[in-house]
Design goal:
The chain has ten helices and ten strands. By secondary structure, the chain is an alpha+beta fold. The longest helix has 21 residues, at 139-159.
């Protein structure tokens, strides 16, 4: 959650695991207009679910090659990786329900877009039940809070009609591609891609090749190297580009880039430099 001097009406934090999700925090937060609050990233990988109860505000998101503000009005929600949330601001008095959670197994979630579920999916009593159970000293009660949150998450996502159609492989594959492009700083395995698509690994490989004309790993490498070339064109160094794309160092990134593109990234930098800089 971002730093805030605003009033937190109800919050609870007592992490517990259940069914591939670990709920870490649930809070009801109020923000006053005219202020921007920076978000501090947790050391471990987490996700944020922000539900706008009333008012209007925005969140600043960090994509691989840009930063952008996304507005959230009353009744909308957003799911976002913790490290992609940079700041939050209120355009009006803004009331939020805020959940901080981690995934302990692969799970497809629609991230980085404002979504509108049916009315009544997240009521104040439903939020209170989750927050109060999470703050309990009893392990089983805290697990119950995670079960309630899993049910809420399912209702929000399913009610927003953002799940891919099981009948159309092209839609499923596009969902996977969108997820890959939105998480270029993470290394995503073919097993995880299959999980996102809701298929077995073997079926996913076959369907992916039918739709895209190439295997998942081949397309994934191209997507990442396209992003790398874009970052290099913007003036980032090889080391900076490697970091933005989740490589542990410039050496491993350069090796991967050369394998896909046939030339080292420094050669791309030279070609992209304006003629005035070459002389």
């Amino acid at each position: 959650m971002p730093d805030s001097t605003e009033r937190i009406r109800l919050s609870a934090s007592a992490p517990t695991n259940l069914g591939g999700i670990r709920l870490c925090f649930a809070g009801a937060v109020s923000y006053s207009p005219g202020k921007t609050f920076q978000h501090h990233v947790h050391k471990e990988s987490r996700k944020q679910l922000i539900y706008s109860v009333s008012g209007l505000g925005g969140v600043k998101l960090d994509a691989v090659d840009r930063e952008e503000w996304l507005s959230l009005s009353a009744g909308q929600f957003l799911i976002i990786d913790d490290d992609k949330l940079k700041a939050i601001r209120a355009d009006q008095q803004w009331q939020l329900y805020w959940f901080d959670f981690a995934l302990t197994s692969p799970l497809y979630l629609p991230e980085g877009e404002a979504l509108t579920p049916p009315d009544g999916v997240l009521s104040r009593p439903a939020f209170d039940a989750i927050a109060e159970a999470l703050g309990s000293d009893c392990l089983w009660t805290r697990r119950h809070s995670t079960a309630l949150f899993c049910s809420l998450l399912t209702g929000l996502v399913a009610g927003s009609k953002v799940l891919p159609s099981e009948e159309d492989p092209a839609v499923l594959i596009q969902r996977v591609l969108d997820h890959l492009k939105g998480h270029l700083d993470q290394l995503i395995s073919v097993d995880e891609m299959a999980e996102i698509a809701g298929m077995s690994v073997n079926v996913f490989r076959k369907k992916f090749a039918e739709v895209m004309g190439a295997l998942p790993k081949t397309v994934y490498d191209r997507v990442r190297m396209d992003a790398a070339q874009s970052l290099l064109a913007q003036g980032l160094t090889v080391s900076e580009t490697a970091h933005r794309l989740g490589y542990k160092d410039a050496f491993h990134f350069s090796r991967a880039f050369r394998r896909v593109r046939g030339i080292p990234p420094r050669e791309i930098q030279k070609r992209l430099k304006p003629s005035s800089e070459k002389t």
